[in-house]
Amino acid sequence: DVVRMVERGSPGQGEGSEDGPHATIVLRRSRPVIRCHVFPPGAVVACDVPVERALAPTEGDCVWIDIEAPSEADLAMLTNHFQFHSLAVEDCTHLQKRAKFERYASHAFVVLCSLDRTTKEDLFDTVPICVFLRHRLVVTVHPKRVTAVERVANLLVNEPDRVGHHTERVLHTIVDAVIDELLPLVEDRQDLVDEC
Q1: Dmax of the chain from CA atoms?
Q2: CB-based contacts of 181, cutoff 8 Å, min separation 6
Q3: Less Cβ around it within 10 Å: N or C end of the chain?
Q4: What predicted TM-score, i.e. pTM, was given to this entire model?
Q5: Is the dihedral of CA 102, 176, 143, 115 positive or negative?
Q6: Can you tell me the distance from the alpha carbon of 144 to that of 4, in angstroms, rounded to the nearest whole number?
Q7: SS3 label, residue 130
Q8: Averaged pLDDT, 1-17
Q9: Structure confidence at residue 194 (pLDDT)
């Protein structure tokens, strides 16, 4: 795994830890996992472009940057280059188990809870997707592989019209992918309830 989970305030760290009982990500990976996509106006989306291209878009470009298992340098980029709020960036280091929405002066911040398809231990275990959204820019951050995000990235390559050319549409498509993965589990449980 490129990321390891620990529990703040867990045994070995002492009770009454100032950090509280939040699950925290230890940022560690062997290689960068950053995918950048640029949507030039009136042109075909450019998938998997270099980070430098995404950080310096031309006029009219929309940009989606997806960061898996962020390093400290990646988090610093969110604060220093994009000027995202420090509290929102800090949330990217916590294993959020609840969806949330925050509006800041220059951007919105959303946390989605997507099914964790990398493990079969708990069918309902989730992975947070932290989303920063502003005009012509969406940045997604998650601690490990998320199949819902991968589905949207694959759509950009194979069926770009289903995603569109605007960052709001990218977010909408990610939310759709998250819900699509949840629905079969919900329907299965509903069938069990109906049988009782």
Answers
A1: 59
A2: 114, 115, 117, 147, 148
A3: C
A4: 0.79
A5: positive
A6: 10
A7: strand
A8: 37
A9: 56
* 99, two tokens: 């969806």
Query: How far, in Å, CA of 131 to CA of 24, rounded?
Result: 18
pLDDT tens readout for residues 92-139: 998 777 899 999 999 999 999 998 877 666 667 889 999 999 999 999
Distance CA 164, CA 169 (A): 6
Q: What is the pLDDT of residue 31?
A: 53
Residue 131: CB atoms within 10 A of its CB come to: 23
Query: Cβ(125)–Cβ(142) under 8 Å?
Result: no
β-sheet bridge partners, residue 63: 38, 137
Q: Which two tokens stand for residue 20?
A: 């509280």
Distance CA(78)–CA(118), nearest Å, equals 26
Instruction: Classify the phi-psi angles of 79: left when phi > 0, otherwise alpha if psi is within -120 to 50, otherwise beta.
Output: alpha
**Cα dist. 15→19, 110, 168, 186 in Å?**
10, 31, 43, 37
Cβ atoms of residues 148 and 174 within 8 Å: yes
| Residue with token string 């977010």 | 171
DSSP reduced 3-state for 14: coil
Q: Is 133 exposed, middle or buried (0-12, 13-18, 19+ CB in 10 A)?
A: middle
Among 28-32, 75-79, 86-90, whose mean pLDDT is lowest? 28-32
CB atoms within 10 A of CB 100: 14
